[in-house]
Design a protein that fits this description.
With 328 residues, the protein is mainly alpha-helical. The protein is built from 14 helices and no strands.
């Protein structure tokens, strides 16, 4: 059964992408989308809508969902806590601060995304330095508490920027960005984020067996000859890279990195080597579906952060209820 899971999830992802490319004010049938993606001929209007408008956004949603799900799975395994999300070390708050500062300065979209990415990395760097200053770099609890402190400071700085922003132009843009959206995505935005996500994702895939052993505990991992300090640093850097890249192009989107790993765990179990690919495929499908719903469910676009919270909250409660029921 488990051998057929990945092909089924891959097929689900392909179907979701094809359907998403056809949904919108100008509908295109799934068969036509498949024919165009396979290189077949199509009328110019349909080709423009699919390739220039919808496909870049769909691919960006796939990239963001897969990145957040992979980061959430890695963090949950590293910290041995199923309630950990990708922004545990303040990545989202730091990226948000960098992006809103760029909006305050009136910078172009690419510069805002670049500042968002840099802000996420800078926040985690500050967290690591604070943990080292407290002589608790190897202590998971100190690292998490440092992330909470730095994230809270970044959140306060975001609130200050919102107070200083122009209430008629800058403040709505800041608020909408913080709620998460892919409405302004361009083909180059997704292509620019792909190498960064791959740089962070490849180590997680190659070292997934060691990361799974690390999830069993420090002493067990050391007894098996694993350098836990080096591996923990690598996991944090990799997960931070892909989270910062995702937040930079989509804004702050919650629940994906928390909920999708739980869903993947129900399918593949707790072993990280099986959990990671399932979480990546599920996260991509989930984010594409949510983004399609966000741009087609109402006359105005619904922020992605709102939809993921509305969907993720009840689903997460159901997952907790199911897990508790299984223990009874």
């Amino acid at each position: 059964m488990r051998r057929s899971i990945l092909p089924l999830l891959g097929l689900l992802l392909i179907v979701t992408v094809v359907v998403a490319c056809g949904i919108g004010p100008y509908p295109v049938s799934p068969l036509t989308v498949l024919r165009m993606l396979a290189g077949g001929a199509a009328n110019p209007a349909s080709a423009h809508v699919v390739f220039d408008i919808r496909l870049p956004r769909v691919l960006a949603a796939l990239l963001v969902g897969a990145a957040l799900a992979a980061a959430g799975s890695a963090y949950q395994s590293l910290f041995r806590n199923p309630l950990v999300s990708p922004d545990i070390l303040g990545v989202s708050s730091g990226a948000g601060l960098g992006a809103v500062f760029g909006i305050l300065l009136g910078l172009p979209v690419f510069a805002v995304q670049l500042l968002g990415f840099g802000g996420g990395l800078a926040t985690v760097f500050c967290v690591a330095m604070l943990a080292r200053a407290l002589r608790g770099e190897a202590d998971i609890l100190v690292l998490v508490l440092a992330g909470i402190v730095v994230g809270a400071l970044a959140g306060a700085a975001i609130a200050l920027v919102k107070v200083l922003a122009d209430p008629y132009e800058q403040l709505p843009a800041i608020t909408f960005w913080l709620l998460g959206s892919l409405s302004g995505i361009q083909r180059g935005d997704a292509l620019a984020a792909v190498p960064i996500v791959l740089i962070g994702l490849v180590p997680l895939v190659l070292l997934r067996w060691r990361i799974g052993v690390l999830g069993l505990g420090e002493e067990e991992a050391r007894a098996l000859g694993i350098d836990t300090v080096w591996l923990r640093r690598l996991v944090i850097v990799s997960a931070t890279l892909i989270t910062a890249a995702a937040v930079a192009i989509s804004g702050v989107i919650g629940w994906v990195g928390l909920m999708v790993p739980h869903m993947a765990r129900l399918i593949a179990g707790s072993r990280f080597d099986r959990l990671l690919p399932v979480a990546i495929l599920l996260g991509g499908s989930f984010m594409v579906a949510v983004d399609t719903l966000a741009r087609s469910a109402a006359r105005i676009e619904i922020p992605l952060g709102v939809l993921t919270a509305l969907i993720g909250g009840p689903v997460f409660v159901w997952l907790l209820w199911r897990g508790r029921r299984a223990l009874v």
